[in-house]
Amino acid sequence: MTYVELTPLDLALAAILLLIPAAISVALKLGLQKSLAIAALRTTAQLTLLGLVLEWVFEANRWFYVVPMLLVMLIAAARAAIARSSRRFPGAHLAAFASLTLATTLTTFATTELVIGVDPWFTPQYVIPLLGMLLGNGLTGISLGLDRMLSDLIKERPSLESHLALGSTLWEASLPHIRQGVRNGMIPIINAMMIVGLVSLPGMMTGQILAGADPTHAVAYQILIMFMIAAATALGVILLCLIAFKRIADPMARPRWEVISHHD
Amino acid sequence: MTSPRLRASNLTWTPPERPSPLWQDVCFELHPGECVGLDGESGSGKSTLMRALVALLGTERGEVHCGDLTLSPETVHAFRRRVLYLHQRPAPLAKTLDDELRLARHYASRHIPAHTRPLSEDEQHTLLDRLGLSHIPLTRTFERLSPGEQQRVGLVRALTLQPPVLLLDEPTASLDTRSTERVEELLHELLADHPTRAILLITHQADQRARLTSRTLNIARWHPASHTTPNP
């Protein structure tokens, strides 16, 4: 298998493609030219930097290079997850970090150790991209789950309080909303699993094929990845919703409504 | 035996965006057999006070007792089972009317207070009938009921638990004259048949207050001095 290495000149040529959205933006007065230019620069800068860091980490091949890198990824993902949720609670960032860390590292290392059989355990070529894939999808899942659960609790406050007034426990009264949150967080990955290969060609698989991998091998990895994402997302969203419930529960069997904040 | 059914002492609450309490050092007692009115202008804090009595609202200080039971994290479920707060606009517990009644029986089966017996399914239907709701199919969803029907279903739900103390927030606000009479009749009977019970009632209808209550608490007396307008 061969693959064509892209030179900076090739990429500069590809940047001409960006003239199309830029022209549309100008023609229709969308006012997106500036954002587009910044986005293009950021894409280039961020990915170039990532490439350098990865090369460095791969070369070093030491756990104390890999683990901090994973930590940075986890922190960034937790921040992004909470930023995307319109409803939050005190300690949401830490809770998102804890849920994502537990869910994705468990899934990643279970897979690298038991399924792929990576040696040593921190082999960056496997651990970093796998964790990255799980985080990218997991953070969407947990933010959708949290957002839905908290919005539902607020929307259904009168009904919730009707249950409480009749002597229901806060857990019983909240459970339908926790369920709805978890369900909402898991729907995207289930939908993705339904249509993968029919409508969408997954990015990772495309990348592998472009890089010269045998399509059947790329497919095998993609299947593995989808299963891992499903597992990590489910774990992460359940954890975050349960932590959120714990955090907003008042000992007097009522939600502490005042701690649920709204952000647009 | 004149030990109070419900006793509130020193309840104080400040709304989130206000510098001073809306009501403070609220102290009162409900005695067995009493129906007491809770009076005050709109926004004076009657509903919030009622909600605070069952800890749906957190107060800064104060205690609530029902007989030997003190409202606390350990007792809150049993307490709400004994002191039942009924919202002015009851919200759905479940989808259909049948589910509503079933859930009410489910909650009624727990922490049953001494000397009370929850309503059976048949008794619930008798009550629906008395309140003029027997025409509603049990498969009807709560949302499709009229506000007046919802309010009466809320009352049936609450009475399923046969609570010793009822906190009623404008229980006839959405009802026509005939239905209002039926509810008032029912409340009269409730106290006459079980003289150990007590009711706290918010109502804006002076005639209703006269018909049902034996005395009235005006919430203005618990407003901080700076917020009360002197009464001539």
UniProtKB/TrEMBL annotation, chain A:
<feature type="transmembrane region" description="Helical">
    <location>
        <begin position="12"/>
        <end position="32"/>
    </location>
</feature>
<dbReference type="InterPro" id="IPR005226">
    <property type="entry name" value="UPF0014_fam"/>
</dbReference>
<keyword id="KW-0472">Membrane</keyword>
<feature type="transmembrane region" description="Helical">
    <location>
        <begin position="189"/>
        <end position="211"/>
    </location>
</feature>
<comment type="similarity">
    <text>Belongs to the UPF0014 family.</text>
</comment>
<feature type="transmembrane region" description="Helical">
    <location>
        <begin position="126"/>
        <end position="146"/>
    </location>
</feature>
<feature type="transmembrane region" description="Helical">
    <location>
        <begin position="223"/>
        <end position="245"/>
    </location>
</feature>
<feature type="transmembrane region" description="Helical">
    <location>
        <begin position="39"/>
        <end position="57"/>
    </location>
</feature>
<feature type="transmembrane region" description="Helical">
    <location>
        <begin position="94"/>
        <end position="114"/>
    </location>
</feature>
<keyword id="KW-1133">Transmembrane helix</keyword>
<dbReference type="Pfam" id="PF03649">
    <property type="entry name" value="UPF0014"/>
</dbReference>
<dbReference type="GO" id="GO:0005886">
    <property type="term" value="C:plasma membrane"/>
</dbReference>
<keyword id="KW-0812">Transmembrane</keyword>
<protein>
    <submittedName>
        <fullName>Iron export ABC transporter permease subunit FetB</fullName>
    </submittedName>
</protein>
<feature type="transmembrane region" description="Helical">
    <location>
        <begin position="63"/>
        <end position="82"/>
    </location>
</feature>
Automatic annotation (TrEMBL), chain B:
<dbReference type="InterPro" id="IPR003593">
    <property type="entry name" value="AAA+_ATPase"/>
</dbReference>
<protein>
    <submittedName>
        <fullName>ABC transporter ATP-binding protein</fullName>
    </submittedName>
</protein>
<dbReference type="GO" id="GO:0016887">
    <property type="term" value="F:ATP hydrolysis activity"/>
</dbReference>
<keyword id="KW-0067">ATP-binding</keyword>
<keyword id="KW-0547">Nucleotide-binding</keyword>
<feature type="domain" description="ABC transporter">
    <location>
        <begin position="6"/>
        <end position="232"/>
    </location>
</feature>
<dbReference type="GO" id="GO:0055085">
    <property type="term" value="P:transmembrane transport"/>
</dbReference>
<keyword id="KW-0813">Transport</keyword>
<dbReference type="InterPro" id="IPR027417">
    <property type="entry name" value="P-loop_NTPase"/>
</dbReference>
<dbReference type="GO" id="GO:0005524">
    <property type="term" value="F:ATP binding"/>
</dbReference>
<dbReference type="InterPro" id="IPR017871">
    <property type="entry name" value="ABC_transporter-like_CS"/>
</dbReference>
<dbReference type="InterPro" id="IPR015856">
    <property type="entry name" value="ABC_transpr_CbiO/EcfA_su"/>
</dbReference>
<dbReference type="Pfam" id="PF00005">
    <property type="entry name" value="ABC_tran"/>
</dbReference>
<dbReference type="GO" id="GO:0016020">
    <property type="term" value="C:membrane"/>
</dbReference>
<dbReference type="InterPro" id="IPR003439">
    <property type="entry name" value="ABC_transporter-like_ATP-bd"/>
</dbReference>
